[in-house]
Amino acid sequence: MFNVFHIGEEKDFSWSMIGNIAEGRRNLGEGMPVMMYRLFQYSLRSELSRRFSEDMAKELFRKAGELSGREFALHMLDLTLPLNDFLASLQNSLEVYKIGILRIEKFDPHTGDVVLTVGEDLDCSGLPVTGDQVCNYDEGFLSGVLKEYTGKDYHVKEVDCWASGARVCRFEANVDQQAKV
Question: Per the database record, which ranges form the 4-vinyl reductase 4VR domain (predicted)?
Fold first, then answer.
């Protein structure tokens, strides 16, 4: 058995670190208010920005999101499904786990590029309008899911966000051309 808090020993995240939630939270269960999730996320983002830089905090959230997206895809999605069925399964999973309401706006079957939206996004829906795109974790998460399904590296960029004044988060996901070289 591993100790995730062992000092001096690097640990890569794995699905097993989530543990047995049903056993550990017999009374409280899996539900948790979005407010508590955001308290964790935005306080951590603030501390990372303060200690390093805002750009570094965003990159760390993207990388963590990508790792989470890959693990989520491997453990919660059927990667053998045909594309349309896979996307329907992903949409359903994101709703069931209350991450958001996924819609595919455009898909190019020749390039693999996709434009998608997430409504009622866990990370930002209801935030004050600041003019920023704040869903860096989501960028990484979607990139990780797409990578596991397609086997290709994806660059995912949020182009609309609740915090920028939009009412859905819109992401452009492009196959990473640099990874092909």
Answer: 113-175
State the sign of the Cα–Cα–Cα–Cα dihedral 91, 156, 63, 12. positive
Dist. CA 96–CA 107, nearest whole Å: 24
Q: Which residues, listed in sequence order, are joined to residue 173 by a DSSP beta bridge?
A: 114, 156
Contacts of 86 (CB under 8 A, 6+ apart): 77, 78, 79, 149
User: Which residues does 27 contact at the CB level (< 8 Å), separation at least 6?
Assistant: none
| 1: confidence class by pLDDT, cuts 50, 70, 90 | very low
Question: Is 57 in a helix, a strand, or coil?
Answer: helix
DSSP code at position 175: E
| Amino acid at residue number 133 | Q
- The C-alpha atoms of residue 66 and residue 110 are separated, in whole angstroms, by 24
d(CA 4, CA 104): 37
Residue for token pair 């660059």: 155
Nearest to 145 by CA among 97, 78, 98: 78
Tokens describing residue 88: 């329907």
pLDDT in tens, 127-171: 999 999 999 999 999 999 999 999 999 999 999 999 999 999 999
This prediction's pTM: 0.91
